[in-house]
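Folds vary. Our protein:
___
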Amino acid sequence: MLSGEFYDSRDPELIEIYHNAKQLLLKFNNLSSRETSKKAQLLKQLFEKIEDKVWIEAPFFCDYGNNISIGENTFINMNCIFIDNNKITIGKNCLIAPHVQIYTASHPVNAAERINTNSSGAPYNTFTKPVAIGDNVWIGGNSVIVPGVKIGNNVTIGAGSVVTKDIPDNVVAFGNPCKIVKKL
């Protein structure tokens, strides 16, 4: 899965990781906003790496959790969805607005290639690419980050953007598809 090759999303080992993540998320998303230490403990169990002073608003959703790393002082607002079938790395001091979606999984666009005719495994072919977000990044609400994208340091992504290509350091970018509109 992490190598980017087609994989069986219904593999028993992956399903067990998925169920574990869903159990932790159920607990996290149902805790009171005042139960910050319990929330932090659950996130440490869920994620590959989470640094100090990370704040994640509930509800939060992901597939596995163990492919997500988040740097210190990062804030993730409510209703974010991280499809972490590959690595999602988020730097320090980031602001991720409500309803941001980060995807690492994809499928072939050609239906004949997408449908898995092999009798074992999932009925469709899936592959993944990692997503990396640098330090000091602000991603506006309702933005979508597609598989394989790298966003540099000190970047602002405008609300509603669909980020389909890498974004270099020190820029403001927005739109569908997301384009650089200003160098900082």
About this structure: The CA atoms of residues 24 and 42 lie 6 Å apart. The chain has one domain: 12-183. The first helix runs from residue 12 to 30.
